[in-house]
């Protein structure tokens, strides 16, 4: 917690704002990575994992890109 306090003092914004941004980013990144893995989209998964955009890329992926794809389960007899 001390490192967050130090960061808040250095940047000049409240601690709660830093915590909010961290939780916001992790939530959107988790949802987007889950969807990319489920759709087996390796390149999207890698991009979402590496690029940090405070959830912007993740939201674009979830609401614009991944809606065009569906996973079809085929059962073999």
Structure characterization notes:
The chain is mostly helical. The protein is built from 4 helices and no strands. Helix 2 runs antiparallel to helix 3 and helix 2 runs parallel beside helix 4. The protein has one domain. Helices cover 69% and strands 0% of the residues. It holds the Pfam family DUF5652. This is DUF5652 domain-containing protein. It comes from Candidatus Zambryskibacteria bacterium RIFCSPHIGHO2_02_FULL_43_37. InterPro entries: DUF5652.
Query: In DSSP terms, counting alpha (H) and pi (I) runs of 4 or more, how many helices?
Result: 4
- The overall number of domains is 1
Query: Average pLDDT, to the nearest integer?
Result: 88
For the secondary structure, the number of strands is: 0
Strand-residue proportion: under 5%
The biggest beta sheet reads:
none
Radius of gyration: 17 Å
Distance between the termini: 55 Å
Residues in helices, as a percent range: 55-70%
Query: Unreliable runs, pLDDT <50, ≥5 residues?
Result: none
* Helix-strand category: mainly alpha
Structural shape: elongated
What is the N-to-C order of secondary-structure elements (H for helix, E for strand)? HHHH
Organism: Candidatus Zambryskibacteria bacterium RIFCSPHIGHO2_02_FULL_43_37
Keywords: Membrane, Transmembrane, Transmembrane helix
Protein name: DUF5652 domain-containing protein
Domain DUF5652: 14-70
Helices, strands, pairings?
Elements: H1 2-11, H2 15-38, H3 42-50, H4 56-65
Helix pairs in contact: 2-3, 2-4
